[in-house]
Structures are given as C-alpha cells and as structure tokens.
Amino acid sequence: MFELLGIPPQALFGQLLLGLINGAFYAMLSLGLAVIFGLLNVINFTHGAQYMMGAFGAWMLLNYLGIPFWGALVLSPLVVAVIGMVIERTLLRRLYHLDHLYGLLLTFGLALIIEGLFRRQYGSSGLPYDNPLPGGTNLGFMFLPNYRGFVVVASLVVCLATWYVIERTKLGSYLRAATERPDLVQAFGIDVPRMITLTYGFGVGLAALAGVLAAPAYQVSPTMGSNLIIIVFAVVVIGGMGSIMGAIVTGFGLGVIEGLTKVFYPEASSTVIFVIMAIVLMVKPAGLFGTAK
Amino acid sequence: MSTSPTTAAPPAATVRTPRTGMLALFGIAAVAVMLVAPFGVYPVFLMKVMCFALFACAFNLLLGYTGLLSFGHAMFFGGAAYICAHTIKVLGFSPEIGILAGVAFAAFLGLLAGLLAIRRQGIYFAMVTLALAQMFFFFCLQAPFTGGEDGLQGVPRRPLFGLIDISKDINLYYVVLAIFVFGFLVIYRTIHSPFGHVLKAIRENEPRAISLGYRANQYKLLAFVLSAALTGLAGSTKVLVFQLASLTDVAWQMSGEVVLMTLVGGMGTILGPIVGAAIIVTMQNYLAGLGEWVLVIQGVIFVAAVSLFRRGIVGEIIAIVSYYRSGKQQP
C-alpha cells in the first residue's frame, strides 16, 4: 500500500470525497444566491433556512406520508420553492426600491422565524434519514459509497444544467437582460415581476434540493442551514457573484480545499475558507470571478 | 442633486435634530432617573440594558451614521469579553486594567477586520464582516484560553482602582452607569464633530465625498475601529456584571441581536439604539421561559420593523414631531 505524504490514501480520498460533497452544497447554494442577487438585488439570508426546509421536507414526506427519497427529491424543492415565491410576493417585493440592506435584514428575520419554529418542533439535535443507496463500489484505490458518488454527480448535473439554461437558452437571455436593465426588458413586453418571482422560486428550490441531497448524507437538523449559510457567504465573497460558472467552480474548489485541510491540518478545517476569503480580499477585492462593483 | 442627496441610503437623513439645549436638559433628567432607578428596578437588569445599549449605540455609529452594516460585531463584543475576563481572572489584574485590555483588543481586532471589510461595499461588507466574525467564533471555540463550551466563569469582582468595592450590585451599577454615560458622550461628540459630518457625507453619497477630497476609506476605517473599541467597552463591562465570558457573546446570533436593537429603536438616531436595547433585553427577560419562541419572536420583530416601521421607534417619533412642527409633507 502506498502512502502520500504520510497519509494513507483511504483517508485522503475519503476526505477528498467528503470535500467534494460539501463543495457540491456550496456550489448549489452560492449558485442560488447569485441568481437571486442578480435579479432581485437581495442577499437571501433565508437561503440556509430554505436548505434546511428542503431536508426537513424530505424527512416529513418519508415519515408522515411514506414518500421515499426519490419522490422527495422532486416534491420537497417544489414545495419549498412555492413557499419562497409566496414570501417574495408578500414581503420581499415591497423592498426592491429601498437599500439592499433591508432585503438582507428581512430575510435574516425570516431565517430566525423558520429556524425557531423548526427547533421548537423538532429540538436542536438531528434526526436520522436512511440512506436510499446503501452499499458502495470498490474503485481499487478507495471505497466509494454509492450515495456519496450520486450526490456529487447529481449536483454537478444540476449546476451545469443551470449554467446551460442561463447562459445558452432564450429564457436565460431574458433573465440576463432583466438583470442588466429590468425597465427595458419590461418595455419589450416581458412580465418582469413574474420573472422575479419565478427566479426567486428557482434559487430557493435549488437550496431545497441541496437540502434533500444533504438529508441522507448528514443528519436532518434545524441548525444545519445557519451553520452552512455563513460559509456560503464567504464562498460568494471569494468567487464574486458576477458569474454562474464562477460560483460553481469556487464552490467545488473550496469544498475540496476544506477536505484536504481536514487531512493535513484538521485544526484549521473550520476556518480555512474564511482565511482564503481574507487573502482574496487583500489580493483581488472584487473576488476571483467578480467585477468591481 | 443639491436639494436632496437621499437616494437609497438608510433613512433618517432628513430628520431634524432637536436643539442642543433641549437635549442637554433631557440628558440631565435621564441621568437623574438612572441614578435613582436601581432602588426601584433590579440593578443587574438595568446594567444588562446599559451594556447592550452601549453596544447598540457603538454599532449605530457605523450603521446609522456611516451607512456600513456590520454583521459581525459580536467578535468585538465577545472578543473583548474574553480578553477582559482572562486579564482579570487568570492574570489577576484589577477590573480597570481588564476593561482597558478588552477595549484595546477590540480596537486592534477592529483595525484588522476593518482593513479587510472596507475593501468591499454594501451587501458584501455585511457578508465579509459576518464571515470574519464566524472565523473568530471558531477560533474562540478551539483556543484553549477561552474555556471552550464552558467559557470563563466566575470572573472575580475585585475593587475598582483598588478603592471602589464593586462586589455589591448597587456599587457596580453606578460604575456601569458612569461607563455608559462616558461611552454615550464619546459617540454623541463623534457624531457632531466635523469627523462625524464627513461620515454622514460618505453615507449619503460616497463618490461625492471622495470628489470633495475626503479619503472615504480612511474615514470608514476610523469609524469602524471606534465602533469596535466602544463595542469592546460594552463587552468588557458585561464581564464585570455577569462575571462570565462565553461563546454566546461571539456567536452570529449576537451580531444579529445588535442589528435588531438598532433597527427597532431607529438607526441613525442618537437615542434609538438605547430604546431598542431596552425593549429587546426586556423582552428576552420576560420571555426567557419560552425557549425557542424567543428566536421566532425576534424574527417576527425583524420582519415587522423592516416592513412597517423602517425608521424605528425613535425615528418614527422624530418624523411625526417634525411633521407637526414644520407643517410640511414628510416622505
């Protein structure tokens, strides 16, 4: 058995895989944040809570209605997206003409409400969710649990599909145009307010989808979102919100770096992304893929 | 451009400030009330309110008067608390040295965080400060001197300056009152100094302030450090009151709480943060038995404040008063 820098390959590749999974969640969440910010000019602080709602949605569908993981993978994001669109229509919409701060504060308040309600109902400790793809494959150099492989592939597909829709289709061109000049797009007869609602729903649905994927990988817990969202904010600062591909690459990249840190210097694993953020701010304040704003 | 510079910046820019004489009179009356208050109300509760009111006032210096939303002020509050507690409990210094150490540390941390955070603007500024505070939280979680999950408990209340016995709550109350009044006057003086006016100019229109020759980033950094130092003063004072420094003080929820206090009271008003802190601390005291509902209620207040009364309680009162005084239409 060979060793890399004194680390057994099993541990190294295992952490790399975990890093890729974390990176998948970072990518999906920062992608949603970027899409929402692009059109709504709102930093969606509720994003973490909506990720948590996605995971809880899957848990509830299974335990209350008996709907298995694969059904929840579709249903849960849809439900959370609809709730998100209601929030957009009733609350967020009234803040667009104001400073961006208010959108952040409102969504922060919503995140507190949602997290508080779930904590009140389900306690702070996690609930288990059975692995829908038990077993694994031996790749020779490492043992790959099937479900973990599925998460990485599925999130990669979702991210790339999102990139394709936004950058390469007609619908995406409307979205990009509305991001630049909503008034002009509206003048061309496109229903921008409806587009805003749907975009918010899409971003939120993406967060909920990440939540469903996370449910079997981690425990389902009311605090899972608030812990994650702050890291995702750092990811967004590092990548900059200007580019879709940038968000995907930064998300996966930072997940892998975090995984490697767990192998080589575990003490720093919880802070490494913030340290990278500090360095990026010093060297390239606009973010790796961002434009000065 | 010359008539109304208010674009999308935080509100309360057009609100008139009352006359200085009136305010001085009001201040003297308020201090007089505070001098006799501990005979009617539980002093520890009042001290808690004053610590958080000072925290919120320091925060408001940044949000209300410079237009910078920091979502990481817990790192200065909790960081100073840890340093103060460590200096007093482990190193065995007297309380005034502990407070000075806490303030110095918060100012230093503010300088570091400020240098990084002012490189981004608006919404990114909030995210950067939040992320930096989270980094500091993880540092405190792992660093040995903070006592991890237990925190630093049982910090002794040694005599202040070797003279004043602060082990009695009533004595400590007047010390905390003096610290609070001092901090408040520093903030009041800063806001009404030429420096404070430049800050307001930056808040209203940064490019214009720069074009007038002001180095906006240096002003923002100085405001950030000042706010951090005063936040540290509040955090250190809190250690004397509760004899405790813990992870709660550095967690992101604490950063959110101070935003809530300032928002509810009225950002960009002098008295708003005090009113907001009093309301939120009172609410937490009365609702402590409700557990997780406190989080929900805080969230509801956030949503209500943003949706219904963005100027905050004091801000709305000032707006109504000046509406009746001037007889003009207020926005």
TrEMBL record, chain A:
KW Transmembrane (keyword) present: yes
Full protein name: Branched-chain amino acid ABC transporter permease
Native source species: Xanthobacter tagetidis
One GO cellular component term noted in the UniProt record for this chain: plasma membrane
GO molecular function: transmembrane transporter activity
Domain of life of the source: Bacteria
Subcellular location: Cell membrane
Homology family: Belongs to the binding-protein-dependent transport system permease family. LivHM subfamily.
GO biological process, one term: amino acid transport
Keywords: Amino-acid transport, Cell membrane, Membrane, Transmembrane, Transmembrane helix, Transport
Automatic annotation (TrEMBL), chain B:
Transmembrane spans: 20-45, 52-77, 97-116, 123-145, 172-191, 221-246, 258-281, 293-324
GO MF annotations in UniProt: branched-chain amino acid transmembrane transporter activity
Subcellular location: Cell membrane
Pfam families documented for this protein: BPD_transp_2 (PF02653)
GO cellular component, one term: plasma membrane
Topology of the protein relative to the lipid bilayer: Multi-pass membrane protein
Main location: membrane
CDD domains named in the record: TM_PBP1_LivM_like (cd06581)
Name used for this protein in its record: Branched-chain amino acid ABC transporter permease
Organism: Xanthobacter tagetidis
